[in-house]
Amino acid sequence: MVAIIVHGGAGTIKKKERIPKVLNGVREAVLAGWKELKRGSALDAVEEAVKSLEDNPLFNAGTGSVLTLDGRVEMDAAIMRGKTLDAGAVAGIWGVKNPISVARKVMEKTDHVLLSGEGAVKFARLLGFEEYNPVTDERLKQWGELRKKLIEKGETRHWKKLNELITEYPEVLRSTVGAVAFDGEEVVAGTSTGGVFLKMFGRVGDTPIIGGGTYANEVAGASCTGLGEVAIKLALAKSATDFVRLGMNAQAASEAAISLATKYFGRDTMGIIMVDSHGNVGFAKNTKHMSHAFMKNGMNEPEVGV
Ligand code: ASP
Q1: Is the CB of 192 inside a 6 Å radius of any atom of ligand 1?
Q2: How far is the CA of 205 from the centre of ligand 1 (A)?
Q3: Over the chain, what HEC string results?
Q4: Which domains are seen in the chain, by residue range?
Q5: CA pair distance 230, 252, nearest whole angstrom
Q6: Which residue among 193, 200, 272, 289 has the greatest number of ligand 1 atoms within 8 angstroms of its CB, and so is best to mutate?
Q7: Ligand 1 atom, smallest distance to 227 CA
Q8: How confident is the model at residue 157 (pLDDT cuts 50, 70, 90)?
């Protein structure tokens, strides 16, 4: 039994015309991963699926990443292998096209788990990742508009108000990407993001935190999306795999993980995708939308939804 599921972020998609494009993006990504999965590697499948989403400017990862309060792109990504617990991550990286591939290199080429900021950029260059500008015109425009709204409200220093902002401006939670796959032997999970729109300089979310936004072990894997601070405080990706260890399948565990997030932090905070080592997929959210797509043995076409 093999399976792969991807997500394109939890939040609210305000413009309805965006939905078919987003669904097409997650569909393409799951098919890119599926191709690799059929060759036998969940690790390659997750990397390829996430790269496909990073390269699609609709999503908030790689090209199209959102900007920080001070107008920079600082991207986070992580990948983890369930069989060996090998993990690699980058936090606050810039100037590269595919942070998920840099994260994989951290896992494979170093003794470390997480490289951040300038060190992560330096490492990427040493490994031959070329200089790349992931900022798109659309994101720059959105950044300008959102920042203007905040300034008009006298809220440039909203450092304690991110939750309120999300209710008022749901676009601050936006289209992070992730993938989880099982190749019959191993579960692998990966996540990549530009983070939360208008995040503080230097802020690191849940995505590159092993156990927070990304986790895999021998029973299951999980990739989270939503308000990163929530997933970090609940160690949500790891907690979700614990639910599988205690007997739930990937779907029940996803729902249990999201119930936890809702119980502690309210609605409109989190989404999750999972695969367990029986090849079951799971997904749940307490936001209005979370685009996703999955493929399993016996399916000819991906199932997609938002
Ligand atoms: N979880 C991401 C972060 O907090 C954002 C998102 O999923 O949209 O950085």
Answers
A1: no
A2: 6
A3: CCEEEEEEEEECCCCCCHHHHHHHHHHHHHHHHHHHHHHCCHHHHHHHHHHHHHCCCCCCCCCCCCCCCCCCCCEEEEEEECCCCCEEEEEEECCCCCHHHHHHHHHHHCCCCEEEHHHHHHHHHHCCCCCCCCCCHHHHHHHHHHHHHHHHCCCCCCCCCHHHHHHHCHHHCCCCEEEEEECCCCEEEEEEECCCCCCCCCCCCCCCCECCCEEECCCEEEEEEECHHHHHHCCHHHHHHHHHHCCCCHHHHHHHHHHHHHHHHCCCCEEEEEEECCCCEEEEECCCEEEEEEEECCCCCCEEEC
A4: 3-198+205-289 (3.60.20.30)
A5: 20
A6: 193
A7: 4
A8: low
- Closest Cα to residue 236, out of 220, 101, 106, 141? 220
- pTM tops 0.70: yes
Distance 298 CA to ligand 1 centre (A): 32
How does pLDDT run across 172-220, given as a tens digit for each residue? 767 899 999 999 999 999 999 999 888 888 999 999 999 999 999 999 9
The pLDDT score that the predictor gives to residue 176 is 96
Ligand 1 centroid, distance to 39 Cα (angstroms):
31
Place of tokens 């405080």: 233
pLDDT tens per residue across span 224-265: 999 999 999 999 999 999 999 999 999 999 999 999 999 999
Question: Which atom of ligand 1 lies nearest, measured to the CA of 213?
Answer: 1
